[in-house]
Amino acid sequence: MASTPRTPRRGLPRVPGGEPWPPAASGASEAGDDMPAERGAPEPLPAAIAGTADTSTSHNVADLADSAAESARSARISESERTPPTDPDAADPSRVTAVRRGLPRVPGGEPWPPASELADPEHGGGSGRIGEIDPNPLTLSGSATESASQNAADLADVEPSLVPGGPAPTGSVPAPAGSVPVPARSVPAPAGSAPAPAAARPPLAVPKTVWPGAAASSPRPVRSEPRRIGPYTPLQWLGSTAVLGVFALALAGIVVLLARFALAIGPGRDFLAAFPGEYPLPASVPVGLPVWLNWSHFLNSFFLLFIIRSGWQVRREKRPAAFWSPRTNKKRRISLALWFHQAIDILWIANGVIFVVLLFATGQWMRIVPTSWEVFPNALSAALQYASLDWPTENGWVNYNSLQQLSYFAITFVAAPLAILSGVRLSGVWPKDAEKLNRLYPLEWARRIHFPVMLFFVAFIVVHVGLVLATGALRNLNHMYAARGSVDPEAFTGDPTGLLIFAASLLVMAGGWVAARPRVLVPIARLFGDVKQR
Question: What pTM, to 2 d.p., does this model score?
Answer without folding.
Answer: 0.57
